[in-house]
Amino acid sequence: MQWSDALAIALVLSAGAAFLLGERALSAAEDMRAIYWLAVGVVSLNAAVQVARPGAKA
Amino acid sequence: MPASSLFDRLVARGAPAQAAIAGGYAWAVTVAPTVWERGAPVIAILADGVGLAALLASAVGDRLWGGRGRAAALWVFVLASALAWLSAPAALRPTRLDTTRGLAGMAGWALFALASAGPALGERQEPGRVVDDAPLEARNRFARGDVAYPLVGGAVALGLQAVGWGVTSPERALLVRLVALAAGLAIVGTAAEIALARHAPRAPRSWKARMRTVGGPLLLLAGLALAGLLFASRG
After folding, report:
1. Using a CB-CB distance cutoff of 8 angstroms, which residues of chain B are in contact with residue A5?
2. ipTM score of the complex?
3. Nearest partner of B77 among B32, B41, B33, judged by Cα
4. What are the residue boundaries of the structural domains of chain A, listed by start?
């Protein structure tokens, strides 16, 4: 496993954690906090895909 | 009973079995509860029974009169279900019908409509013309460890479904479920994409070129983390 694979997996897991926090905030009617965590989740997933793409690997 | 045998028998039954399974599910979730009401009208009870009988009779109708017999029996089932609802409207009030059961019922009727209009499975129309050959060889196979990616993604997606079931407002509860579903799908899709990317040819690239591709999302992520820290420090 290359470093980029490990980083991509870590980013996916962190996206899952961010989505979880976003959902909890949404359930508690804390909309600003929910938007923040959901945005973090989306950006983390995007970063994971970019990191894992073959073109981005050495 | 082996799975293949069950599958073969379901295929042999054809369209009536598929419509009956989906219709039976929709009936059990949305129509049958109308007779559980205390003091349910006799018409509702009768319509419930007629609907179920018509659903079961659709297989007989298909055997005796073909597609027309099946269609007639299924229409009797649908009309009897509508009559049961009309005669006991209290069973469909939002206070009686919770969200989960309502969604399950909608899915059941959609499946019934799909199975009735376009059955997915059918008997071989001309078995004599079918040539059984050796199974096709797969062009590519999963490498060891690939399965772990969608499995982990699926586990995370399932974990997201565990949150937000105690929300009292129906609109917010629905929003939470939608967000959980969308986030879960995105995670499973990304996990699968990462697994596939492992097998694609990798061209050697310079550090600068690599950072041009990866740097943007990582910088954005760092910016969001910084903003979160600032937001948290201000209380």
Report:
1. 194, 198
2. 0.90
3. B32
4. 3-56
With CA atoms as reference, the chain B residue closest to A57 would be: B202
8 Å CB contact of B160 and A20: yes
Burial class (CB in 10 A: 0-12, 13-18, 19+), A37: buried
Q: Which of 166-205 (B) contact A at CB < 8 A?
A: 166-167, 172, 175-176, 179-180, 183, 186-187, 190-191, 193-194, 197-198, 200-205
Q: Which pLDDT score is estimated for A19?
A: 95
Q: What angle do CA B120, B60, B49 make, to 5 degrees?
A: 95
Inspect the interface and report whether the beta carbons of B201 and A43 lie closer than 8 Å. Answer: no
What pLDDT sits at residue A57?
A: 43
Q: Give CA–CA dist B72/B58, Å, rounded.
A: 8
Whole-angstrom CA distances from B210 to A7, B16, B119, B198 are 14, 58, 50, 16
Q: Which of B6-20, B53-67, B126-140, B154-168 comes out lowest in average pLDDT?
A: B6-20
